[in-house]
Each structure stands twice: as structure tokens, then as C-alpha cells.
Amino acid sequence: MRLFPLSRCCIVLVLAPAVLAVPTSVRAQAAAAPAAAKESFKAYTESIPGTELKFEMLPIPGGKFLMGSPSSEEKRNDDEGPQHEVEIAPFWMGKHEVTWDEFDEFAFSKDIKRKEREKVDVAKQPASEQQADAITRPTRPYADETHSLGRKGQPAICITHHTVMEYCRWLSTKTGKVYRLPTEAEWEYACRAGSKTAYSFGDDPAELGDYAWNVDNTEKPQKVGQKKPNAWGLYDMHGNVSEWCLDHYQADLYSKLAGKAERGPVILPDAKEYSYVARGGSWDDDADRLRSAVRIASNPEWSVRDPQRPQSIWWHTDATFVGFRLVRALDEQENLRGLKSLVVKKKGTK
Asked: Is residue 342 part of a domain?
């Protein structure tokens, strides 16, 4: 079982996030989307323009729930409590974790290279395509980014919080729909799918093998969607890979929220690279680390083998257990509009 130190550094709440660099037409479309979307809040399949790649988004109904775990829950961690009521607005969430198939289009500029081979007239491209092409892509990783753990149909791994936010910006620009990481509260709400037990399916870890890949039944991450989904149709919410959330990690956050009925709480990302929240546990974790309420915090040990100084802002060398999935708000809360990563390229990196 891998245990990670939890950072207790000062967390800054960003009150004025930077504006997302997407075309005006895309922002206008996103602003107009809620009214139309409310009439068709249902599952849909998104296609990535210029490719044959598709992914499914499922509707997650809004509601209230108790975030965190009760003091009686077995192997509970201190940062999981006290439980507090949270209200969540409706949103869509990816049916599966984002795979290398999708991520490679962005990370390795496959979309741009395809246009070069086909001699596409850049000047005649839609504005959204031109804007997407201009978004900075990750530098090549120091070593095999898959760590020989599989690619096709496999969850993308070893990518930083910054990289995932830039992927979301690229995808939003390409599709005209605003995709982002889930907040920590949205993630737990979706994982629980109405349950109040340690796992979305109950309290008995003996049943975990039906729903999750973890250290008891695999030695590496597996292709997405092979186990049973939770009650809302989401696959691999427990195990396979832990999933990035939007929030900075704050160990005592729940004690600050106790006694308050919070709507859409979030600790906004800023220019600091650590620590951010990941949820769900992974293929390399014991059963108790896959509980719905478990929180882990990113830390420099996730890149301990990166020989670059300063280290890459794009890739982790030691986070084969971390990936991500997407969400899209039905009607975005104000403090999440126009977010982009504030992490900047460091002098001396390639």
C-alpha cells in the first residue's frame, strides 16, 4: 500500500481567476447553453472535431448530500470529517476516465500533425480550430509516459494538474462546450450516487472486486469500463486510477465548513503546483483507500525521478496511479467561469 504525505501548506483562495482563452464565439455559446440544455439534460456522446474519437457524458442530477465520512466509518482518515451538508448543481460527468486515445490528440499534437499531412489551409479553419491549435502543448516526457502499462483504451496517467487543466481548455475550444475537472464536492457526490455507505455499493469491501481494480486483483491500471458502474452509470469511480479534482488540498477544510450549508464549495487552483486533490483510489491501493470519502494530496514525491531541474510542469514520473475524468456544468457557478491554469513554464525547462 502506498501512503502519501498530506501537505498542510497555506492555501490561497483565488477570488479572481484568469479568463479562459477561448474564442468569443465559444464563450457566447457557453453562456447561452444553460437555457437550451435544461430542455435536454440527458446523456450525450461528444465527438472530438477532426477525429473519430468519441466519449460519453452522463447527466448527474443536482441535490444535497453529506460530504465526508462519519466518525464510525472503518479506517477513516482525519481529513474526511466532520461531515457537512453540501448542495450540488446539476452537471454532466464522463462515463469513463479519459484515455490515452483522447489525450494523445492534445499532448502530442496529433490534430495539428494530421492537418499538416492533409495540407489543410489554416486560414480557412474555423476560429475555434485556430484557437485550439494555438494552445501550448506538453513537452515530450523524459521517459515512456505510459510506463509500459498500456495505451489503447487505458486511462491517461502521470500527468500533472496543470496539464489536465490545459487539456480541458483545448477540448473546450475544439468542441464549443466548456469542459473542466470536477470540484472535490462534485466528485464525491457523483461517486456516492445517492449512497451514504463507505463505497457506492455498500460497506463491505469484499464486494469491491465487482466494481473496482485495486491491489487485490491487478498489478497495473486496466482498460476503462470493465467493472460494474455505480448507480448513476459511472465506471471506475473506485479504483483503476485516482482522479484529479479541481481543488487545492486543504486538510482542515471540512472543519471550516461544518455547520454551514454550502453550495458548490471549491478551493480554486492558483499558481502553486502542489497540493491538489485526487479521489477514488487506484490499482495500487488497498481497499480502504478506495472509499468514497478518501482524499489524497499531490506532492513532489510524484515526480521524484524527474531529472530536470526545475522539474516538468507537464508530467509526473511517479504517478502511475493518477488520471482524470471530465465534467461539464449545466449552468456554471460564477466562481468557476473562465478558469485556466495559472501555473507557468519555469525557466530552464524544455
From this structure: no
**Residue 264: inside a domain:** yes
Task: Provide the domain limits for residue 29.
Answer: 24-336
**Nearest CA among 338, 342, 264 for reference residue 19:** 338
- CATH number, domain with residue 62: 3.90.1580.10
Query: How many other C-beta atoms are found inside a 10 Å radius of the C-beta of residue 39?
Result: 7
Query: Would you write out the chain's pLDDT as a tens digit for each of its 350 residues?
Result: 443 333 333 333 333 344 334 444 444 444 444 444 455 899 999 999 989 999 999 999 999 999 999 999 999 999 999 999 999 999 999 999 999 999 999 999 888 888 888 888 777 788 888 899 889 999 988 789 999 999 999 999 999 999 999 999 999 999 999 999 999 999 999 999 999 999 999 999 999 999 999 999 999 999 999 999 999 999 999 999 999 999 999 999 999 988 887 899 999 999 999 999 999 999 999 999 999 999 999 999 999 999 888 899 999 999 999 999 999 999 999 999 999 999 987 655 55
Domain count within the chain: 1
Q: Would you list the DSSP string of 38-88? A: TT--S-EEEE-TTSS-EEEEEEE--EEEEES--TTSTT--GGG-S-EEEEE
Residue 341 lies in a domain: no
